[in-house]
Design goal:
The complex is a heterotrimer of chains A (about 300), B (about 375) and C (about 375).
Chain A lengths: L3 H6 L8 H4 L3 H7 L1 H22 L33 H37 L1 H16 L2 H12 L3 H29 L1 H8 L4 H37 L11 H8 L8 H27 L9
Helix pairs in contact in A: 3-12, 4-5, 4-12, 5-6, 5-8, 5-10, 5-12, 6-8, 7-8, 8-10, 9-10, 10-11, 10-12, 11-12
Chain B lengths: L31 E14 L2 E14 L3 E5 L6 H9 L6 E10 L2 E2 L5 H10 L1 E4 L3 H4 L6 H11 L4 H14 L5 H4 L9 H13 L5 E5 L7 H18 L2 E6 L2 H7 L2 E6 L2 E7 H6 L4 H8 L50 E3 L2 E3 L23
Parallel strand pairs in B: 3-8, 3-9, 6-7, 7-8
Antiparallel strand pairs in B: 1-2, 1-4, 4-5, 9-10, 10-12, 11-12
Helix pairs in contact in B: 4-5, 4-7, 5-7, 7-8
Chain C lengths: L1 H7 L8 H4 L8 E12 L3 E13 L4 E5 L6 H8 L7 E6 L2 E2 L5 H8 L2 E4 L13 H11 L6 H10 L16 H13 L5 E5 L7 H18 L2 E6 L2 H7 L2 E6 L2 E7 H6 L4 H9 L9 H4 L28 H5 L5 E2 L15 E2 L2 H14 L2 H4 L17
Parallel strand pairs in C: 3-8, 3-9, 6-7, 7-8
Antiparallel strand pairs in C: 1-2, 1-4, 4-5, 9-10, 10-12, 11-12
Helix pairs in contact in C: 7-8
The chains are: A mainly alpha (about 300), B alpha/beta (about 375), C alpha/beta (about 375).
GO molecular function, one term (chain C): ATP binding
Organism (chain C): Yinghuangia aomiensis
Protein name (chain C): Glutathione import ATP-binding protein GsiA
Chain lengths: ~300, ~375, ~375
């Protein structure tokens, strides 16, 4: 017994409420408290990453200053320096760029391929579903990091290859996340209605199935982005991700192992950046989750 | 609100035969077992509390069936849930009383309420599949409630066998070991009724229990409930939107509109001389054998009410063909008019306009 | 009516030779001996439809009544090619649709459309009202501007401003009107309505029924109206078919089937319909049948109704009764228009006995010309 039907059944909505209902997705995320925090912090991180990428940082991230090794945070070196005297603030900024770049590319690949597989499996069922589901099961059978390691070993290092490796890890997750809702949406009366109306199959899938299964996929994207940042960090930590002297958050954490005992800042700032990015993306996912429900739109 | 109730309501059997099929046995009459007075229930929403029930008055005597009819949004299901104390999270009774043999249930704490529910008030829901636990044997489901009310294992088992037989299920002993999916829809609904009646409650609240069933099965179950009502001397509250069910099972009918009782009538008089323009319109909108074939049906027209945006005055005024100035200013109380009570300023003999016109197929403004 | 409509609309793809020739005697729907079985894990083969034949002439309303599992919804799905029959043929306006390929199927979609029971479930929750209608028009290459969308909305009694709403912002009645408007967008000739008012509030049902009456008058549509509610079917249908466990057990003119039913099941159905009239003698209603509908995966032998039938005899347990015409006289001595067919050994024998006694069998089987609904197969096997 839910109280919802009573309210939805109620009538009538004022004749023109399009102004409110037309609002864009981001505006709706903004109205959600979690979503707003996630949006602000993610936006800030992206800004820092871009600054790092274009070199708009106080110091060269790979320039070594042998005289200033392991300096604590100061006006010159905001986050201090590492054992080679490199500016940690600049390296964190560049590291965020590296991590985000890999995360975005890998998640984009995984989302497109995984969702396509999952939607086809859920919609067509039968042997398509069997093939996709077994393939997904096989990928799931490997520990994620092992799978990524295998791919990197095969393809060689480089940020694109790291992204592909991570994409391989996350593709089955997207396939699984999109298959479930597609199974139920595919059975929905409104999909049957489209068949009766003679709507071509690709259009039905693109215009009616995809939008109705997009909410879990979009939420999964934000979660996968945060995991991808962690995976990239792990790979770099193991020496198979970003190669020195380039900066990446994972690599910095890895390098900090030997110095953290007497220079806390070498570990703290890159680790903090990872944590902040992961939390921000999760909050953004929460906001998207509620923003993507059309029933939440104003009705009176 | 509470002074609006109708004190001089006639008993169920003062004149005329009982309406239901197995009415041969004289039914006990007497004081109402269940009395609802000025019941108000509100739901918390983002834009503040929304009143779903706005002062419901109702009473049910021993051996009597009172049907509560209404459309979605009328508050009929909330009336049932409020009486049973099963309101969903976010909904609260905000006023009025629910008296079970004189004891007000509304202020009782939840654990007291739980004892009353089940032991004294039984409840049956619409969907027999989702109301039964699919992985629990029938016997366990019937005895579970009894055990929770302090019955011994042996007594509960005996009682379960007895009540399953009483609701018309064949071979109860074998049935006790079966799972819900092994039963047909009609049998599942009977099991639910058995669960509700096992602790011998005084009141049975049925929330559209036959709506999901086929008509031939529905008919059988209505007959069974009428028989059990007489055997147990149950006070039955039957929530439905189906006026056919009302005609078959109810002694009296409460027609709800916008969270209030619009009309409370003996069943026969509701169908022969409805006292509220809304009930009149509902009845006239049904196709009857007398209605010309393929001709337009009289329709109420207008838009259903929006509880969050109720106009002042009578909530039905905007759709009412008998509307007068007074109706848009003051909300009429439920007043007694002999065989019926109605919340309308005008008794039927003062109605000037055609009760409900055959309008075009376009929706009313 | 139809002519007027045709000239007013965009050029149409010619549908079939029969249609182009304007063959008025081609029935709108001609279903012959369709069989539909489902394999259900754990249950076996479910006999959803077994050798069902039915014809609907143009402009007529066929009502189909029956309880859950009788096959009425399966028939609706076959008529709209949501499913294909395992055996038998389905013709709409003279064109076979059961084996139609993609191209002809698209054109066929423009001749026959379906209105679903639950209007909310049959609308994409993420699509605005206007977009939903425009999409149908686009898909079929019809003009789809806001004007046409507004026109469609007005045709079903909705204001054009509703085009901006989402389905959840509509009332139950408005949603069903939208469901009907969407089906009408392709200007179909036949509308199949699967329990179109069952999910609606009582006061809204009359509105939707009135809308259907209007549409029939304005557009000259042919309807198949499926419902479990004999009262609604009686009100709207010209002919009524009664189904039980995948078979038609009785079919005939609306007044004959609903008011003077012959088959024991139809009688039970009639008695069980809860007529909102408390003065009706309750004892009469108690003549209903006992028990419940058997599992369609294991239909009873012989007549499928025999385990629940008060008239059942030995022959009913072994031999399946064929759906054959019966001579019917009303109590007032007149004959209903159209043919009345029945699948029941016992009632048929009683008729034969009565006719013999009256010595006028020829007269008894006389029928008025051009029955609107005919059943294709003379003998059931």
């Amino acid at each position: 017994m839910s109280i919802q039907p009573l309210v939805t059944e109620a009538e009538p909505v004022p004749a023109s409420a399009p102004a409110a209902t037309r609002s864009r997705l981001l505006a709706r995320v903004w109205r959600d408290r979690n979503g707003r925090v996630g949006l602000i912090v993610t936006g800030f991180l992206v800004l820092v990453a871009v600054l790092g990428a274009v070199g708009a940082v106080p110091h060269d991230p790979i320039a070594q200053h042998p005289d200033d090794r392991l300096q604590g945070p100061s006006a010159t070196y905001w986050f201090g320096t590492d054992q080679f005297g490199r500016d940690i603030a600049a390296r964190v900024a560049v590291g965020i760029w590296t991590s985000l770049r890999v995360a975005v590319l890998s998640v984009a690949i995984a989302t497109v391929i995984g969702s396509l597989l999952g939607i086809c499996a859920g919609f067509f069922r039968g042997w398509v579903d069997q093939v996709v589901s077994r393939f997904v099961d096989i990928l799931f059978a490997f520990p994620a990091i092992l799978l990524a390691l295998a791919v990197v070993t095969a393809l060689g290092t480089g940020w694109q290859n790291t992204a592909i490796a991570i994409a391989v890890v996350y593709t089955p997750i997207f396939a699984r996340v999109s298959r479930g809702p597609t199974l139920s949406v595919g059975n929905a009366e409104y999909i049957k209605a489209q068949r009766v109306l003679g709507t071509p199959l690709p259009r039905v899938m693109l215009r009616h199935v995809l939008p109705n299964v997009s909410a879990p996929i979009v939420v999964q994207v934000t979660l996968a982005l945060s995991w991808a940042i962690l995976t990239e960090s792990s790979l770099s930590f193991l020496g198979l991700g970003t190669q020195p002297p380039a900066a990446s958050l994972g690599l910095m954490v890895s390098d900090a192992r030997s110095t953290v005992a007497n220079a806390w800042w070498t570990l703290t700032f890159p680790a903090l950046a990872i944590v902040v990015a992961v939390i921000a993306l999760n909050l953004l996912g929460d906001g998207l989750r509620s923003a993507l429900d059309p029933r939440r739109e104003s009705r009176s | 609100m509470t002074d609006k109730l109708t004190k001089a309501r006639t008993g169920p059997h003062e004149n005329g035969a009982p309406m239901s099929d197995t009415g041969a046995a004289p039914r006990p009459t007497g004081d109402p077992v269940l009395t609802v007075r000025g019941l108000r229930t509100a739901v918390r929403t983002a834009s503040g509390p929304l009143e779903i029930l706005r002062g419901v008055d109702l009473d049910v005597a021993r051996g009597e069936t009172v049907a509560v009819v209404g459309e979605s949004g009328s508050g009929k299901s909330f009336t049932a849930l409020s009486i049973a104390g099963l309101l969903p999270a976010g909904a609260d009774v905000t006023g009025g009383s629910v008296l079970l043999e004189g004891r007000d249930l509304v202020p009782l704490p939840e654990d007291e309420r739980r004892k009353v529910r089940g032991a004294e008030i039984g409840m049956v829901y619409q969907d027999p599949m989702t109301s039964l636990n699919p992985v629990m044997r029938i016997g366990k489901q019937v005895t579970e409630g009894l055990r929770a009310h302090g019955w011994s294992k042996e007594d509960a088992h005996e009682r379960a066998l007895e009540v399953l037989g009483e609701v018309g299920l064949p071979s109860p002993r074998a049935l006790m070991r079966q799972y819900p999916h092994q039963l047909s829809g009609g049998m599942r609904q009977r099991v639910l009724i058995a669960c509700a009646l096992a602790p011998r409650p005084k009141v049975l609240i049925a929330d559209e229990p036959t709506t999901a069933l086929d008509v031939t099965i529905q008919q059988q179950i209505l007959g069974t409930v009428a028989r059990l009502r007489d055997e147990y001397g149950l006070a039955v509250v039957w929530i439905t939107h189906d006026l056919g069910v009302v005609a078959r099972i109810a002694d009296r009918v409460a027609v709800m509109y916008a969270g209030r009782v619009a009309e409370l009538s003996r069943t026969r008089s509701l169908f022969t001389e409805p006292q509220h323009p809304y009930s009149s319109g509902l009845l006239r909108s049904l196709p009857t054998p007398e209605h010309p074939h393929q001709a337009l049906l009289p329709q109420i027209g207008g838009a259903p009410i929006l509880l969050s945006d109720l106009p002042p005055g009578c909530p039905f005024a905007a759709r009412c063909p008998q509307r007068a100035d007074r109706c848009t200013r003051e909300e009429p109380p439920l007043v007694n008019r002999g065989s019926a009570s109605a919340a309308c300023w005008f008794p039927p003999h003062e109605w000037k306009n055609t009760p409900m016109e055959v309008t075009s197929h376009a929706q009313g403004a | 009516m139809r002519k007027v409509r045709k000239t007013a609309e965009a050029p149409q793809v010619s549908r079939s030779a029969a249609d182009a020739a304007g063959a008025a005697d081609t029935p709108a729907i001609d279903v012959r001996g369709v069989v539909r079985h489902y394999r259900s894990p754990g249950r076996g083969v479910v006999h959803a439809l077994d050798d069902v034949s039915v014809r609907v002439e143009r402009g007529r309303v066929l009502g189909i009544v029956g309880e859950s599992g009788c096959g009425k919804s399966t028939l609706a799905r076959l008529l709209t090619r949501l499913e294909r029959p395992d055996d038998g043929t389905v013709e709409v306006l003279g064109t076979r649709i059961d084996n139609a390929k993609r191209g002809p199927l698209r054109r066929m979609r423009r001749t026959i459309q379906l209105v679903f029971q639950d209007p909310y479930a049959s609308l994409d929750p993420r699509q605005r009202v206007g977009a939903a209608l425009a999409e149908v028009l686009d898909v079929h290459g019809l003009p789809s501007g806001p004007d046409r969308v507004g026109e469609l909305l007005e045709q079903v009694g909705l204001v054009a401003a509703l085009a901006e709403r989402y389905p959840h912002q509509l009332s139950g009645g408005q949603r069903q009107r939208l469901g009907i408007a969407r089906a009408l967008a392709v200007r179909p000739d036949v509308l199949v309505l699967d329990e179109p008012v069952s999910a609606l509030d009582v006061s809204v049902r009359a509105e939707i029924m009135n809308l259907l009456v209007h549409l029939r008058e304005e557009l000259g549509l042919t309807f198949v109206f499926i419902s479990h509610d004999l009262g609604m079917v009686r009100h709207f249908a010209d002919e009524i078919a009664v189904m039980y466990l995948g078979k038609i057990v009785e079919i005939g003119p609306w007044d004959a089937v609903s008011d003077e039913p012959l088959h024991p099941y139809t009688r039970a159905l009639q008695a069980a319909v809860l007529i909102p009239d408390p003065t009706r003698d309750a004892a009469v209603a108690e003549t209903g049948v006992t028990g419940e509908v058997p599992d369609a995966a294991a239909p009873p032998t012989g007549c499928r109704f025999h385990p629940r039938c008060p008239l059942a005899e030995d022959v009913c347990r072994t031999e399946e009764p064929a759906l054959l015409p019966v001579p019917v006289f009303r109590k007032d001595g007149t004959q209903p228009s159209g043919e009345h067919r029945l699948a029941c050994h016992v009632v048929r024998r009683r008729f034969a006995e009565t006719a013999e006694a009256a010595q006028s069998p020829a007269q008894a089987t006389a029928h008025t010309a051009a029955p609107a609904v005919r059943v294709g197969k003379e003998t059931g096997e």
